[in-house]
Recover the amino acids of this structure.
């Protein structure tokens, strides 16, 4: 019996899907363990046991707990950027798109407030992937602001790069807001600062 060309491809896709599933489970498990026990208390053995894979298999994917957390953080950041791009690309005029992007960004910040403590945040918020993501975020918000400016809805007396910085820094405060309603008010105040003067 001979195999067709399709079988190896199917096998390769199956193996790749399995690897992705193991990787995702490892990232989720490690993040949950660190959130529960703290970074210093989590070991590769714990992660392997909780994930349901052998320790040797885990080491094929990651050299240590920190590497797992960096991969988890990179996945989170990529997901946030994808969500913001989806919101930006939705139909609507430039003003609606700007409002939706700012609201979404603020709610992402709000959701992150208890995702990890300062010890883990200090570890994760460094490295190339963070700088790359920050650049993408700045570009996305700046482009939406420029569209809204061209539509006459955003002040022109301040350069777009400065307005972008204003929005992102103001909305970072959403991580310290007590409720979603407070986040919504923060977005409204931020948007008020963008409007052209009379």
């Amino acid at each position: 019996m001979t195999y067709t060309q399709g079988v190896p491809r199917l096998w390769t896709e199956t193996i790749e899907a399995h690897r992705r599933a193991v990787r995702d489970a490892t990232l989720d498990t490690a993040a949950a363990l660190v959130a529960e026990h703290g970074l210093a208390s989590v070991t590769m053995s714990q992660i392997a046991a909780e994930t349901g894979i052998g320790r040797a298999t885990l080491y094929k994917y990651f050299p240590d707990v920190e590497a797992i957390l960096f991969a988890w953080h990179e996945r989170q950041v990529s997901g946030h950027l994808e969500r913001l791009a989806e919101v930006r690309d939705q139909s609507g005029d430039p003003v609606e798109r700007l409002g939706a992007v700012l609201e979404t960004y603020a709610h992402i910040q709000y959701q992150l407030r208890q995702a990890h403590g300062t010890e883990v945040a200090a570890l994760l918020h460094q490295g190339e992937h963070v700088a790359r993501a920050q650049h993408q975020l700045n570009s996305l918000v700046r482009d939406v602001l420029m569209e809204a400016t061209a539509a006459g809805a955003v002040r022109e007396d301040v350069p777009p790069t400065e307005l972008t910085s204003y929005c992102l820094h103001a909305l970072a405060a959403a991580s310290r807001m007590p409720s979603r309603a407070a986040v919504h008010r923060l977005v409204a105040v931020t948007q008020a600062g963008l409007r052209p003067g009379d």
